[in-house]
Amino acid sequence: MASRIINFTLNGREVEALARPMTTLQSLLRDQLGFTATKSGCRQGGCGSCTVLVNGEPMTSCLLPVEDIEGEAVTTLEGLSSPDGLHLVQQAFHEGFAAQCGYCTPGMIVVSKALLDHNPHPSREEIVAALTGNYCRCTGYEPILLAVEDAARRMNGREGA
Amino acid sequence: MTVKEYLLPRSLDEATGLLAERGPSLLVMAGGTLAMPLINEGISIPERVMGLRHAGLDQLTRSNGTLVIGATTTMTTMCNHTEVPLLREAASNVAGWAIRNMGTVGGNLFAPPPAGDFATALLALDARVKLVSHAGGERLLPLAEFYTGFLTNALQPAELLAEIRVPVPAGRTVFVKFGRRHANTPAVVTVAAYLTMEGGKVRDARIALNAVGPHPIRARRAEASLTGSALTKESIARAASAAAEECQPFTDAIASEWYRRKMAAVYVDRALSQVAA
Amino acid sequence: MSEETYQVVGRALLRRDGLGHVTGKTPFVDDIRFPDLLHLKMVRSPLPHARLKSVDFSQAEKVPGFVRALTHADVPKNMYTILCLIGIGPDEEPVLAVDEVFYKGEPIAAIVAESESAGMEAAAKVRLDMEELPAVLDVEEALKPGAPVIRPWGTNYFPYEGHPCRRVRFGDVEKGFAEADHIVESRYQTSPMEHAPSETTACIAKPEADGRFTVYTNTQALFFTLDNTALILQIPFNRLHFVGGTVGGGFGGKVDVIVEPLATLAAMKTGRPVKYKFTREEEMRVSSTRSAWRMSFKDGVMKDGRIVARKVTSYADSGAYNRHTPYAVTKHAANVAGPYAIPNVWIDAYCVYTNRQPASAMRGFGVTPASFAVEAQMDKIASVVGMDPWEIRFLNAYRNGDTKPHRKIVEDATLIEAMKAAAALTGHELPEHLLAMNSWDRGGSRHG
Question: Most distant CA pair in chain A: distance in Å?
Fold first, then answer.
């Protein structure tokens, strides 16, 4: 079977990529398209560092053949900031010291954004539940959870910590 | 070592047709949460793969007291489904958000132990699976008969699992999972139970256990010990003890056989005590 | 200079790499791309101890995308030991196995290929002819007479100046035991611990036009690894340019010399950039861990709570090779008596080799397992003597001017102050006579 052309939307822009059968979205993004914010930590769907949004829903891109997302809208960390600046979640993470080595950060931010899009007023339990699929080995998680709470406050129009 | 052919059928008919054509070497996957890790690491090197994500098998309907779940219905869909609390609880205990968006109900039936917590809830509800082949039509099989052994099942060559039928439960249900972490964790033991009561006594008890056998199992002796009894501390303890004795736990990286057997008793007791409360 | 004028001290300064992390722009090794990049995949021993009779590449060579294989014969100086740079010898670990393997996962041959999947397929098709040998998998079994000897110098322990272990001798423990009112004996066992960083070990070695090699790496020890790489490849140090410092989680797991020598050698042989990245399975199963420790304590304790004698026998499971464990054992011996003033101490700390995954550095290696055992032991002592666990520690805490068992004089002791602060933070009320104690005078300490 030859390579196929796959069309989908990436961070709001149309993408046309040539891919061998079952190339994962993770591999396409990182190796072919140069979108390296999405990381590769395990290729087992276990660590969450490869998490992207497909139509606003978190999915582990290491387990996703690109054929499966043809025509869909994919969002990666690169799609969060704009010429006007950082997304509020990114700001909250940066100002809240919620990143140390930075490797889990893209997955954490992308899932946090999806959570706040679905649920603008999450409880601590809901934030924890949303992020259980994303592993961090450095921060002990607390600064990340605080950053998400802070991001929620900012997004709801109240000043952050 | 790259896959030579990846097929994405758009209907069940097309899928069974491809399966009949390509033969048993065709690897079938739905959400990819079980197959892709093996392919990514070169443990599984299939030449041909069929993905069922877009084959229209994700419909969730209800017909006459039976919930009909398409095989590629995702865990997330089940989490949002409120009609059968047991299935909602079971689905929300599977992995994390991203995996639930991808992992399917059907796929859970093929998950190697100690995975298969959602299937355990299905087992407690006496679910039946619909197996379909291109030439041979379709057949309905009780889930308990679908499992034939460790990593083996009753699926015939050229058969696909198309849907799962679950009688909507009328009695009390409970789902309890014990893992090394609070969430996103493989089970040490999982208990799904469904009891119908009559006149203060148990008329029908279904107790399904996971991670204490080669696949999800029904604790038949525990069930029998409860039938016709009231739910008391003693009858519950008796059932818990029977369950621990009849199960066949194994040792893996998560827990030892010894610990799983002990926890089977503890968690059957806790589950039944929750139902009684 | 007053505190108000401080620009940095006392201020929360945003990380200079923070923006890179939250935008995904921080370049990790795996994010770096070269158009002609090759991939290195390792063939590893499936057995913990075996004779390696032959390696057959004939099927591997047929895989489309196979470029070449590397064996020990290709490595200019195949035997090394990481700490040779600070005078610790001998060179006892092969970069690639020669005729015997000593742990499951030990590197045997490197496959260099056009793609990662070609590399994986070719590596899987390499055929190994091996003869399994008896393995030692337990530290005490490894030291018994008749155990298979797995180190070239003829013992399963690292020799410390002619002795089989690191030894501390202070006072007379037997006299202390004879005088003691209670003897408290316990055995403690810790497990190996894997760092499990989010980012796996990786490097890319790239040949430059001027004959140098640029190595992009996530090692924690840039210069250490550069020097060892140069020694292994027998090239002047100035031919290597290591670029790094961006580590997706280290914790001591990226201080060994793991991927750079072979990636650089492959780049030398092929003239192309070569990436060698651990899979998650390699990171968990093969990369170094914190060593497991087995520690036996025998303490002599007076009924007033003073510890008068402590005898510790410890075994560190170094796995198949040295790495940083001889150093860990030295640190352990210096710390395992605990921050307590004990007049009679005997410590034997062994660095033991087994056919297991080599252990190395991790967050306080050698010392944190000792702390676990020491503090569990203190609680046991408190229970035997019938004293409050806080009091037992206040009583025995060393003060400034005390002599530690390895002859260092205590300076700037703060155990008592730290315990007071911990008690205050947790709302635990300490009795007056403990609150009156401090680290700089003997008031309350029963030791002279």
Answer: 55
